[in-house]
Amino acid sequence: MSAVNEPVKNDFIRQIIREDLAQEKVSNIVTRFPPEPNGYLHLGHVKAICTNFSIAKEFGGECNLRFDDTNPLKEDQEYIDSIKSDIHWLGFEWSGDPRYASNYFDKLYAYALQLIKQGDAYVDRQTPEQMKLGRGSFTETGTDSPFRDSSVEANLAWFEQMKNGELAEGSAVLRAKIDMTSPNMVMRDPALYRIMKQSHHQTGDTWCIYPMYDLAHPLSDAIEGVTHSLCTLEFEEHRPLYDWLLDKLSIAPRPYQYEFARLNVEGLITSKRQLKTLVDSSAVEGWDDPRMPTISGMRRRGYTPEGLRDFCERVGLNKAGGTVDPKLLDYCVRQSLEDKALRAMVVLKPLKVTLSNFEALDEGEVLTLTQPNHPNRPELGEREIPLTKTIYIDQADFELVPPPKYRRLTPGSEVRLRNAHVIRCDEHILDPNGEVVELICSIDTDTLGKNPEGRKVKGVIHWVSADLGVPVEVRVYESLFLSEPDSEGELVLNPDSLSVLEAVGEPSIKDAAPETHYQFEREAFFVSDQHDHRTDKPVFNRVIELRDSYKP
Ligand code: ATP
Ligand code: MG
After folding, report:
1. Which pLDDT band holds residue 1 (cuts at 50, 70, 90)?
2. pLDDT at 7
3. Does the active-site annotation cover 435?
4. pLDDT tens digits, residue range 172-204?
5. Which of 290, 294, 311, 459 is the most exposed place for a label (fewest CB within 10 A)?
């Protein structure tokens, strides 16, 4: 049930459910998330997952996970495993064990027999080309198959032969007998079963005929006692067939299908087929490449389940659709990180600084400073930051010829080292190419935790000890595609979508567990890599920039 302070969501689907409950059409809400295990889940699926699982939870009902595994050619156990893991990571739990449409193949077959016996389905022995021609088009009605009026006995015998593997693939199809003149093409005697001499990841070689989605889906919903079958708008035309099957088979109580708009995010691919092409062509490193809008990719990138769920709630459920600004997603992820990310100092492009009077601090070789891990959350503890004679600052924090209003370090100027003292740049050392390779700075020893006497130092820069800092591999991601498509309108891969930096971080970060979120101060949000981060070789991915002017 929703928490006390949460506004009551009132989209059209929730309204329907409230009505159904009020009128006692149903008592226990059952939804399902029905992925086909033919790829990894993507951002679009996040919306379907949030919708189905959240609605069930809000109304005290249940949501099943059902693999819609009716096409063994494209399916794989790897996809099943990734889908389960993605749903858990998003923070949802399905009711009971995962289910499979293939669990119901016996029942679906029995329903098919019932349709044949009732005269509501027939085996079509035309060639696929003849069948295609016979369906007509949007402007032309279809024509009846010569097999449409075969006897029940003939149909039963052929269906039996299909099942026994006695007929070749493509030589026979079980079709619903509905209406070849229907303006809805889906209703022109749609296929219900086809021959596929293909081993199945769940049922092995038991079957060589497989039900079509249009048969399997409504009947699996019914078998599971689903009350509200929520899907995306492209299934709207299939709803009459959904209803036709449940009517013809006199199934009660029965599920009802409702359609909502797909989630489309500007510039992001939400199609498993297109994502698979990127993986197969090695344009990315795999399904969980942090540049991929797959759930596993976004997870590795450091997006949070809270951010993704918040995003889906803000997008909401409707029938109108449209394209969502990716900045909304970034906004939600950033919001979720503010309270969660630990702080650390990491220098992405190191410039050596020697603190000429370090000895004047009288602290031996190391001055150990202590800072909270999070400015507003003392319960997250503290960390020790060592200051030593040689440190690194970022190359971007020093300019020989500063632009106007530059508040960082320049020859002769002062700046505060974050969490430490004020320093002044006394000298800079150039290499033979005229590049700055080192700064010699002096510490104002009386400025730890207080302002210097008689002057204001406005700039603050981050730094790490050169002696005790740890090398960090930092992976910075940009969008996978260029913003401009090519002349044919095709997306063009961004050659700079990944850059790898050899950075140096304060020692505390090497102890981070994989998938720990950080704000590298003054830089961005980062996450320790799920697979590659190790204490002896820290690896961090850039999640997102610290700020953006975008307001939802
Ligand atoms: P794709 O086109 O990427 O292959 P799909 O719809 O074929 O996606 P399924 O595995 O069949 O993928 O989808 C499972 C569920 O997720 C379906 O109910 C489908 O409607 C829903 N879904 C898929 N894409 C989106 C999307 N972009 N927005 C909302 N729901 C989606
Ligand atoms: Mg699909």
Report:
1. very low
2. 65
3. no
4. 999 999 999 999 999 999 999 999 999 999 999
5. 459
Which tens digits make up the pLDDT trace of 249-274?
Answer: 999 999 999 999 999 999 899 999 99
- Compute the distance from residue 69 Cα to the ligand 1 centre, in Å: 14
Tell whether ligand 1 has an atom less than 6 A from the beta carbon of residue 238: no
- Is 405 among the residues known to form the active site? no
Ligand 1 centroid to residue 67 C-alpha, Å: 12
Q: Does domain 12-260 match CATH 3.60.10.10?
A: no
- Residue 309 pLDDT > 60, yes or no? yes
Ligand 1 atom nearest to 230, measured from its CA: 18
Ligand 1 lined by 36 (C-beta under 6 Å): yes
Query: How crowded is residue 313: how many other Cβ atoms within 10 Å of its Cβ?
Result: 16
pLDDT digits (tens, 9 = 90+) for 104-121: 999 999 999 999 999 999
Residue 6: active-site member: no
pLDDT score, position 3: 47
Cα 376–Cα 377–Cα 379 angle in degrees, nearest 5:
155
**Where exactly are the structural domains of the chain?**
12-260, 344-468
Collapsed DSSP state (helix, strand, coil) of residue 299: helix
- Beta carbon of 262 within 6 Å of any ligand 1 atom: yes
Q: Is the CB of 307 under 6 A from ligand 1?
A: no
Short-list 35, 34, 40, 33, CA closest to 272: 40
Q: Under 8 Å CB-to-CB from 469, ≥6 apart: which residues?
A: 347, 392, 504, 505, 506, 507
